[in-house]
Amino acid sequence: MVLDFSTLYDFPGNIERIYDQLFNPLEISQRKVSYPPLNITEDNDNIYVRAELPGVEINDMDLTVAQGSLIIKGERKPEQGRYFRQERPTGSFQRVVNLNVKIDNNKVSAKMKDGILSVTLPKSEETKTQKINIETA
After folding, report:
1. Which residue of 65, 85, 116, 122 shows the fewest CB atoms closer than 10 Å?
2. Distance (Å) of CA 7 to CA 19, 58, 59
């Protein structure tokens, strides 16, 4: 008969982790991973935000551009039935993306396809990079 004591080697560390998970008040109300997950890219003319939102209806979402930020709000409604495991979050969510550049609010567009929300945020003319010609003296 072989006795395995390897789980006891880090016993104090395991107790600390359990204590942190049970008694940390911030962990109770906050998700460990931001939702929805985002990819943010840019080129000279636009900033592109793509958010993964499978199962969220367009009518259950609200997009706002205000004071240099894109705000994505919404709600994923829970599926009916008895869960054996639930890894995809349900309920209300909000994600704020600070843009740090001026955006032309009148030209912002968004589309939803296959659970991916794609938002195109055109940069204002004053923030676009411009090439300057150098003259010889």
Report:
1. 85
2. 17, 48, 50
Q: Which helix (H) or strand (E) holds 118?
A: strand 116-122
d(Cα 116, Cα 56) in Å, to the nearest integer?
10
**Residue among 54, 64, 49, 48 nearest 105 (CA):** 64
3-state secondary structure of 111: strand
Rounded to the nearest 5 degrees, what angle is found at the Cα of 49, between the Cα atoms of 100 and 34? 90
Give per-residue pLDDT as tens, 39-91. 999 998 999 999 999 989 999 999 999 888 999 999 988 888 888 887 888 88
Mean pLDDT is lowest, of 56-65, 101-110, 124-133, for 124-133
Say which CATH architecture domain 34-79+89-127 belongs to: Sandwich (2.60)
- In this prediction the pTM is 0.68
Q: Is the pLDDT of residue 103 over 80?
A: yes
Cα separation, 77 vs 53, whole angstroms: 12
**Tally of CB atoms within 10 A around 81:** 6
Structure tokens at 72: 């994505």
Beta-ladder partners of 46: 122
